[in-house]
């Protein structure tokens, strides 16, 4: 019996994100994955055009991972890296953002539910493609996409339901344990690898599944194997597999790229291993103030996402300003001031925005009440804030030097998911777990980042901090904190809990009701 998975409704545009989850307390009707029975169908006979379905799946995955909510919110806003403070009534959203920061979410949390549904739908769609007898190349790409989505289910939720294409709605999907799903994902990647293309960095398309992307995902899995297998120890054989996978990527010419923020432009570089066809507008505008804008978005930012002062303090530089010449390392970015604001930066900075903000003519900006727009370092509370609390974080920029027509392209579609600097640090961590001194290897990365002095030694604390400085708002902070045993630690405006159960999100209530084979994660 042919089974279709439907999510109704799904809207991926940045406009919809702004209207539904940014600045108002809207009631959002929750929808769920629906399994419908095709009338008259007697079994799955294969998709009529698996190659076209594969293209559709790439688009679907790109849309799912481009938003500021769902998987991104669970991966980043639930950490010490991002906070969405309520400003008056703006960004209240019935407490949905505050629950992530304080680790007080429940099985009915909208973003928990949406993430579960989106990821599992993508897994099923990939399985339909694989079971439709397509070419070996199509099978391999579909297996990679299935592995990628299943990785996030394993990482966020632990156990993974799996429905065969011939199973009707009367069949409860079997459920893999976290360890079983880990093995399943590894098998998918290893099966896919021989028939995936290999790419040359800066030359070939990094928007499709490749051997290098597969090796990156293998490294990520083996590095986290102690978490996913539940052993709590870093096995030497797993760490060696991390090193081997990264070595394979490096052998193809991937390397650390100089010019940190240029990496996040859709240009040729040696760092981008795999990118999604995702709009990056949400990464730009969810942090900027309403009065910061560009010619293609004169409505301004959404004035939401900030970082915590402790995370900002992990970067070198003047503690309370981030203007040019303040002694900051390259990755902390800069705020254009009256002397260097121009059409090329639109007056909008890079990295971490603190203090007085300016327009492209060097004129100081004001907030909506006419007061100076000065972003503060400290956030006093989760609620009751004004328009200016919090250091803002921006990695992609609305100025796009690759856009030959007008150089302004805030909503271009190029979100990096896998890049070589991450692989380089994964290899360093694997070597550290095996007892090696990796100070020189970490400094090799830092030497590519301007005004970033060498570290004198590197242990777990230093390596976690370095991963934060290099990879902020790239989907990996929660994953890193859990592996280093820091996800349940206290941070600003989050009480000390020490409750290890929040290392996993709950299985949504609707999923438990629809599939009795699922068992709720402990503590929920």
Automatic annotation (TrEMBL):
Gene3D superfamilies associated with the record: 1.25.40.390
- Work out whether the entry's keyword set contains Membrane: yes
Query: Which keywords does this chain's UniProt record carry?
Result: Cell outer membrane, Membrane, Signal
Per its UniProt record, what Pfam families does this chain match?
SusD-like_3, SusD_RagB
Any keyword DNA-binding?
no
> SUPFAM superfamilies annotated for this entry?
TPR-like (SSF48452)
Domain SusD-like N-terminal, residue spans: 89-223
Q: Domain of life, per the record?
A: Bacteria
| Family named by the database record | Belongs to the SusD family.
- Record-given protein name: Starch-binding associating with outer membrane
Source species: Zobellia uliginosa
